[in-house]
Design a protein that fits this description.
The chain has about 80 residues and is mainly α. Helix content is about 55%, strand content about 0%. The protein has one domain. Keywords: Secreted, Signal.
């Protein structure tokens, strides 16, 4: 989730982002930041976060994750490998 918040800025190439819809949906996820930052003691999202997440189109979210994983190779970094 933290990666998605970071990628809001980096998703300019997506088709839906060009219309602003996906980009706007993702920027609304900023309310979830306190719940996903590593080391946060509060990992239970509030209603605002849940509503924002529920309003993001599934394809928008999936495209953002795909683009984020592709950015690493474009930056000559090793592939992302998350334990959980």
């Amino acid at each position: 989730m933290a990666l998605m918040l970071i990628l809001v800025v980096a998703t300019g190439g997506m088709a839906k982002a060009q219309s602003g819809t996906c980009s706007n949906e993702l920027s609304n996820l900023n309310v979830c930041a306190p719940f996903v930052v590593p080391g946060s003691s509060n990992t239970n999202p509030n209603a605002g976060c849940c509503n924002a997440l529920g309003s993001v189109d599934t394809e928008c979210l999936c495209s953002t994750i795909r683009i984020g994983s592709q950015l690493r190779s474009k930056c000559n970094l090793p592939p992302l490998g998350c334990a959980n």
